[in-house]
Amino acid sequence: MPHIDAVAAHIGPGHDNTDLLYLGDRAAIYRLHQGQLDPAITQFEEVLSDRRRVLGDNHPDTLTSRNNLADAYRAARRVAEAITLHEQVLSDRRRVLGDNHPDTLTSRNNLALSYRSAGRLTEAITLHEEELGDCRRVLGDDHPDTLTSRHNLALAYQAAGRMAEAITMYEQVLTDSRRVLGDDHPDALTSRHNLAYAYRAVGRVAEAIILHEEELADCRRVLGDDHPDTLTSRHNLALAYQAAGRAAEAITLYEQVLTDRRRVLGDNHPHTAFTETQLRAARAH
C-alpha cells in the first residue's frame, strides 16, 4: 500500500495510466475490507472518474469501478445510493457483457445484498434464488462465486426469519467451502461464523459458543487480531456469552472489542457504533 500510494502521488491526477488505475481500484478494495470506509469511498470515486475519462462509461473496468463503489456505499450504510448504483451497473453489464457473464452475475448478487440491507427481503430472496440458479448453470456448483451466492441466500433467508432453511444452507455451504477452499480460507471462516450466529438466533447457544470460539481462534491465526472480520467474531462471541447468561464475560469482551474497533475502524464506523450499543444494553441488564 505505501508503494501504491507513493506511485499515485508521484504521477498525480489527470493521468491516463490504466495500470495505475487498476492498482488504485485494488488498493480501494483493500481499504474497504480493512474497514477504512471513507478512504475507500474517496479512492473508488477518484478511480471511477478517471476510468470514465480514459476508458469510457461502458468499458468493463469502468463497470467494475461502479460496482465496487456501490459495495462501499452499502458497507457505509449509504444503502439508497448503493441500490441506485447497483441497479444502473446491472442494467449496463447486461447490455455490454450479457446476462451470463460472471460480472453480470456478481452485479445481481450485490444488488440483492443491497435490497436485503434496505429490508426489501422478498426482492432480495427472489434475486438471490434466480442468480444462484444461473451461477450453478454457468459456473458450476463448486465455483467460489456459486458458494458465495449460496451463502448470501442463506443470509437472506435468515433475515426473513426462515431459520431452518438458513441453517441447512449454511451447514451445506460450510461443508463445501471447506472441501473446495480449505478450512482457513476467509470465506470458509465467514461460513462458520454465520452458522454460529444462526445457531444462537434459534437458541442453540452452547453450539454457537463452541463454533464462535473455534472460528475466532482461526481468525486470529489466519487474519490477525485487528482484521475487521476478527473484530466481528469477537463481538458476536460476546453476543453468544450474553445469550447464555454469562454477562460478565460478555461485558468484558464488548469493552475490549469497542476499544479495538475505535482504534482500528474509528469512532464513526457502523460496527463501532453497534458494539457501543450492545455494551450499553449488556450493562443495563
Automatic annotation (TrEMBL):
Gene3D superfamilies: Tetratricopeptide repeat domain (1.25.40.10). This is Tetratricopeptide repeat protein. It comes from Virgisporangium ochraceum.
